[in-house]
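The freezer alarm interrupted the setup, so I double-checked each line after restarting. Inputs confirmed:
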Amino acid sequence: MAIKILVPTPLRQFTGNKDSVLVEGQTVGDALKSLCATYAPLRKHLYADDGKLRSFVNVYVNDEDIRYLQKEATPLAAKDVVSIIPSIAGGSK
Amino acid sequence: MANVELSGEEIRRYGRHLIMPEVGMDGQKKLKAASVLLIGAGGLGSPLGLYLAAAGVGRIGIVDFDVVDYSNLQRQILHSTKDVGRPKLASAKERIEGLNPFVKVETHEMHLTSENALDLFAQYDVIVDGTDNFPTRYLVNDACVLTGKPNVYGSIFRFEGQASVFAAKDGPCYRCLYPEPPPPGLVPSCAEGGVLGILPGIIGTIQANETVKLIIGNGEPLIGRLLLFDALQMKFRELKLRKNPDCPVCGTHRTITKLIDYEAFCGVQPGWDSYARERQYEISVDELKKRLDNKEDLFILDVREPQEYEICNLNGYLIPLRELPKRISELDTAKEIIVHCKVGGRSRQAVEFMKQSGFRKIKNLVGGIDEWAERIDPTMPRY
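Predicted 3D structure, all chains:
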């Protein structure tokens, strides 16, 4: 089942400038792993060395934060859209 | 009904508000009675200052310490070409008062710190976050939660922006969204990554809109919602934001009950890559100048030789590099220490040595006193 992952601006440099990528995955964790398998340099920006998602990277399924679903075990259904939302600080000095 | 009156001139000025029932006389008086604190007079602060003033907010405070740079003019529409080199607060005040003389502009030329934030926030109804760095964002958030003030949030990067309203009492705060900041260096700043000049205009205007809604008490504020904007695709999206019961500052078991050291909180953490770690131990002459002007408590350590010190110095404490190992006990690990030499080589060695000796709050002045003489103080002799 192909799932669409939306890639935010700061991470597009690791996905060949693609703003969205289609991946296979039954859960959020699977989908992100398959994303990192295709775009290996992305991994260290999403995952800490211990394999956990970094605390400043939020992941949403549609409009819901996976921290309030089943985290990386959150199941995905057809047409679900996964968004990666990293923190940005710019106010433009 | 707010306890203020509108003059005939003000009624003419705000006529297009007054004829709408959603604002009306009641809303316009609320705006006049309201006070808003803008953190930053840059890209987001520019449209915020202009629109809030035009809308008739009675008192606008602005915190900034920067001067207008030529490269700011691409997006910071509060400032004009003639303002390059002036303090941003001076041009902001002039521009806002020119637009609407009924607005009282209060300028706060300082770094927002854990020492001054609570007193300052207490003087305003709404706080609007238009800063450009993580330590200040966490400081603004925590100070808003602690003082119970709504925090109108906006943030931008290249073509993408975020906005929300963090309201301590009713909704989630910034830490509910992002409990921790990314390591320094991992997320590029606008100065490094660039920003579309119009983007802060769009996001700042959304913040102004939310601020006005909070004041007049009408409409659906962005509380509990994170608005995402992509200027390239011209798409708005909205995500749900929940109050995190485990949030350290607004959750049920709070561990943060007063302001902390935000530079340290956003600073180096174990496990970060070497790039981030290196950056943590450096300071530019411009940043040092700003921090000294701001009367920050910095200890300047000069590791050159005494004869060099005689030629020129930054009033630093002199310990030549070769003497540092036996004299290191003269230094205080608790103080923030800026280490410099002539061009930055010896001071880098000194910083390395001090790190191994347990010092953490140390920074190497990149380019040394020579860069200082070239860029900051041209009257200083160079050798």
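Quick read of the result. The mean pLDDT of chain A is 90.
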